[in-house]
Amino acid sequence: MTPGKKTSKNPERPAKPADSLPAEALSADLPAQDAELEAMLARAMMSQANNAPPAEGQRCGLIAIVGKPNVGKSTLLNALVGQKISITSRKAQTTRHRITGMRTVGPTQFVFVDTPGFQTRHGNALNRSLNKTVVGAVNDVDLIVFVVEAGQFNQADAKVLSLLPAGTPAILLANKFDLIHRRAEIAPWLKEMQERHNFAEFVPMSANSAKDVVRLFGICEKYLPPQPWMYGADELTDRSERFMAAEIIREKLFRLTGDELPYTSTVIIDKFEQEGELRRIAATIVVERDGHKGMIIGEKGEKLKRIGTEARHEMEALTGGKVFLEIWVKVRSGWADDEARVRTFGYE
Ligand SMILES: Nc1nc2c(ncn2[C@@H]2O[C@H](COP(=O)(O)OP(=O)(O)OP(=O)(O)O)[C@@H](O)[C@H]2O)c(=O)[nH]1
Q: Subunit arrangement (predicted)?
C-alpha cells in the first residue's frame, strides 16, 4: 500500500500553534537573559498534547521524519507508533528503507514516514538509492519533522535541510535534549537555526521520553487535514513480516559486531514460510569481503549463533508464534557499488 498519493496539503495551515513555541519568537527578539530563555524552553517543554477530536470527523496526514544519520529518527518513529517497527543502533546508517508507521489517536490518524539518514559520504550505488528514498519522502507530505541533535548543526544536517520543499511546514525537532546540561547554550543555536529555515515550530525533546512523545502528537495534529483515514485503526506499519525479519537480523548484526564491520553488509530473506503459528525463515547475510565473513561468524560460530538467537527471540515476540531461523553468510564483493545488485537486494 502506498499512501503517498492519497494525501493533500493542509488547506488551513494554522498561523500560530497554541501549544508549542512559535518559531517567529526565535528569529525576532531572542531573549538575552537566561531566565527568559529558561521560561521559553519550559513553555515549549510543558505544552500538553491536544488530542481533542476535530469538530468534523476524521483527520489524517503524512508526516516525514528526516535528518542526518544517527540523530534518533527511528527511535522517534518507534516511540510514536508504540511498537518497534524501525531498527535502531548506535551505528549511523542503520535505516535503509522508507518505513511507514501509523498511529490512530481518537479521530486522527498520523502516518509517519521514517527515512534513511541522508548520506553525504561515499557516492556508491547503495547511498544513491538511500538518498533517493529521502528525497521522495519529503515531497507530498503534510508535515516534515526535521530532526537534529539539540545544539548541533553541521554540513550533513545542512544537506538534509536543503532538501526540504519551501511550501511544506517543517518542525525543528531538537532531539537528545536530555544530553544538554546548560540550556543557556541553546539560545544562540536556536537563533541560527531559525535564520537557516523558516521553521513552523521548535520542539526540544528526547525521543526516549514518553511524555515528550505524547506532546509531539498534539503539536503534529493540527497540520493534518480533515480527510478519511488511509489505514485501519489498529494498523501499525505497511511493512510485511518478511521485511521485518530481514530488518531484525540486520539490527542484531549491526549491534553485535564492532565498528570494524563496514555498513555495506545486508540481509536477504531466502525463505519465509508460515505453518499455523510457526514461521520457517532462511536468511543470508551478504558481506563484501572474506574478512567480514569471519567477523560475523566469530570464534566457533559464536557470534553468528548469538545474532540468530537474538533475532529469533525478537521475531517470536513480534509474531506471537514460534520461529525456526537459519542464517548463512555469503561474500559478494562490490555489491554496494553495483546498481543492479543493490536493486535485487531490495533497495529502491
Ligand atoms: N540520549 C539520547 N539518545 C537517543 C535519543 N534518541 C535516540 N537516541 C540514541 O541515538 C542512537 C541513534 O538512534 P537511531 O534512532 O538509530 O537514529 P537514526 O537517526 O534513525 O539513525 P540512521 O538509521 O543512521 O538514520 C541510538 O543509540 C539511540 O538510542 C534521545 O532522545 N536521547
A: Monomer.
Residue 73 counted as an annotated binding residue: yes
State yes or no: pLDDT of 279 exceeds 50: yes
**% pLDDT > 70, the chain:** 72
Task: Determine the CATH number of domain 241-344.
Answer: 3.30.300.20
Is the minimum distance from the CB of 78 to ligand 1 under 6 angstroms? no
8 Å CB contact between 64 and 165 = no
Q: Among 146-155, 165-174, 335-344, which is the least confidently predicted range? A: 335-344
| Consecutive H or E run containing 245 | helix 241-256
Largest CA distance in the chain: 65
State in Å: Cα 228 to ligand 1 middle. 32
* Ligand 1 within 6 A of CB of 74: yes
C-alpha cell at 107: 479521530
Say which residue the cell 547503495 belongs to. 126
* Residues 194, 309: Cα–Cα separation, whole Å: 47
Secondary element (H or E) of residue 339: helix 339-344
ipTM score of the complex? 0.97
Q: Which H or E element spans position 211? A: helix 210-221
Atom 21 of ligand 1 has which residue's CA nearest to it?
Answer: 70
Residue 166: count of CB within 10 angstroms of its CB:
7
The two counts, helices (H) then strands (E), for the chain are 11, 10
pLDDT at 193: 95
**Separation CA 316–CA 313 (nearest Å):** 5
d(CA 293, CA 265): 10
